[in-house]
Structure formats: C-alpha cells, structure tokens
Write a structure and sequence with these properties.
Elements (H helix, E strand, L loop, with lengths): L4 E6 L4 E3 L8 E5 L1 H24 L11 H20 L2 H10 L1 H6 L11
Helix pairs in contact: 1-2
Amino acid sequence: MSSKKTIYVSVSNKSLDTEASMNEQLEVRGTEEELEKLHRMLERLQRDDEVTQFRAPIPYKSADHDQATDKFNDDLIKLYQVIYLLGTDKTKAHIHDMNILNKLEDTDYEYPGYER
C-alpha cells in the first residue's frame, strides 16, 4: 500500500509545492499516483489557459461558448474535484465556501442569444 504525502496546490500558479508558502495554496494528501495525476491536470490547465489567451484579442469573437474556454472550464472543474477529494478538512471547507464547483457547472447562460 502506497503511503500518502502532503503537498500544497496553487491553482492560480498551476503548481505543486512540498511546503506551504502562499495563502492561496490548498493542502492535499495523496499517493504518488494521485499526486502525479494532479500534476498532469495542472499542466493541462496551463496549456488550456495559453490557448484561451491567444483567442482573447479577437474583438468580434465571444468567449462565452468558445471551445477553448469550455475546455479550460471543464478541466478547472475536474481539477477542483480532485483537489476536493484529496484535500484536508480545511481544504474541503475552503472549496465548499468558495462554491466553485457549483458556479463552474452552472453558467447562467439561459438568456436569448446564448444558444449553442
């Protein structure tokens, strides 16, 4: 059985650290395999973020239903779900207080003109 170790996740910096250094870091405990999965998810989020930045300057294209933006949001939801599952009680409480999972899943785009 693999032992679990504690690491600190920064979603905004898309990084993992072995020691707490920032207020925004979320503490998680996982096996090597779980932490490697988390690392790959952060790398994918970084790539998604870079793609959405390239399309941002296009003035006539709305980002509301852009595939790159949708991919970024989907990966962000998955990342927070994994962080929540591996998170300490404090991390789970923080994510719960942020209400991030519900906000990302419920985009209030049910208005006319926002059809896919």
